[in-house]
Amino acid sequence: MSSTDKTEGTCCVVDLSALRANLRTVRRLVGPGVAVLAVVKADAYGHGDIKTARALCAEGVSRLGVATVAEGARLRKAGIDAAILVLGSLYSDDAAALVRYSLDPVVPNLDLLRHLDAFGAEHGAEIPCHLKLDTGMGRLGLLPDAIEEWLPELDGLKGVRLQGVMSHFARAEEPESQSCRGQLRAFRRMLKRIRAAGHDAPLVHMANSAATMALPEARFDMVRPGGMLYGIFSHPPLAELVPLAPVLTWKTRVLQLKTLPKHSPISYGGTFVTCRESVIATVPVGYADGYKRSLSNKAAVLIRGRRAPVVGRVTMDLTMADVTAIDGVQPGDEVVLLGTQDGETISAEEMAGWADTISYEILTSISKGVPRHYIEAKQKPDGVGGY
Ligand SMILES: *Cc1c(COP(=O)(O)O)cnc(C)c1O
């Protein structure tokens, strides 16, 4: 039985030993010739960016990926000195912060390239850029059809240095698809042109977790896993390709128990009505915590190692579960929303299925207000099976 701090309400327990084990699994999979950039954007997918980044860096990770300059600056202020690549949001007026915090930009268009080049030259800096190519995602990046326009712009750069060339898959979960094949072809063609024009791109990278697992030829010099590190999968069948351990357990405790007669409506709108005398547990978690309202009448929670169905609507801070079939439930009992309890597991993928989304959205939706606790499960004497 996992230990429960009796004074603790809702919290997330983050198992750093599982995080490290997943990192080692990624490394084993890609081999020593391929670098690993660990993606820690969105508060490390809800696991807590600073603690997660520190644990990964202590394990030898030398490159991190974030979505925004603000995320990168937060890590720098916490003393993290790994290279940090800003993958997502970058505006021209972020140039000063990029330089101040030594963040490496992904450059997806000519305007930003020109602006950073001018800024770097003016401030005596050589900003290490990763050029983003749009090979079929339709999101960020330079287009193949415009190569005659942007390729010459790589000549004579003064304030930026081309450190990487990258792209991103739209359908990496389907490695055999025309989409993946076409993106790889387009990427290789553009790389060839860039190199033929005399530019050295030391780091070529394209693979997110799904491509790292399912499409080995997309690994190039470096892979960019996020989900793999956290043991979650954007597409549940990927879980069969590589054994990864979930890192986060989300739990709370039973707040109140009551026995209701047959035909009692439960929660807003009376969307659930008891069909027998029922024991209903109220737990202090709701959509304000990130426990999605779409889980109403769909999810289950774990109590005493058994599944208790969520009944009625999930409310802002409270949710009800039917524990009629579980003997001996007491107020204060541990309730696992996500994770393992006494050998029974609710995975992020299962919860995502109930909520009609993907596990990534489940984890990144857990409110920042829910405390994260960090453990080293393997070092706990009773750690086996706990999380
Ligand atoms: C988020 C992100 C990743 C990581 O994706 P996962 O599916 O979590 O591995 C990789 N590359 C880019 C550009 C991203 O934005």
Concise overview:
The protein has helices spanning 16-30, 41-45, 49-58, 69-77, 95-100, 110-122, 147-150, 178-196, 209-214, 227-230, 348-355, 359-365, and strands at residues 11-15, 35-39, 63-68, 83-89, 103-107, 127-132, 160-166, 203-207, 222-223, 248-253, 256-260, 265-266, 272-273, 278-283, 300-303, 306-309, 319-322, 334-341, 344-346, 372-375. It is α/β, with parallel strands linked by helices.
Q: Tell me the structural class.
A: alpha/beta
Query: What is the level 1 CATH name of the largest domain?
Result: Alpha Beta
- Principal-axes geometry comes out as elongated
Query: Beta-sheet strand percentage?
Result: 15-25%
Count of alpha and pi helical runs: 12
Query: Which ligands occur here?
Result: pyridoxal-5'-phosphate
Number of domains: 2
From the alpha carbons, calculate the radius of gyration and give it in angstroms. 24 Å
Strand order of the largest sheet: 2-3-4-5-6-7-8-9
How many individual β-strands? 20
Considering DSSP H and I runs of 4 or more, what fraction of the residues is helical?
A: 25-40%
Mean pLDDT: 95
From the N-terminal CA to the C-terminal CA, the straight-line distance is 9 Å
- Give the CATH topology of the largest domain: TIM Barrel
Q: What kind of sheet is the major sheet?
A: 8 strands, parallel, barrel
CATH superfamily of the largest domain: Alanine racemase
Task: Give the uncertain stretches in residue-range form.
Answer: 1-6, 380-387
Question: Any guess at the CATH architecture of the largest domain?
Answer: Alpha-Beta Barrel
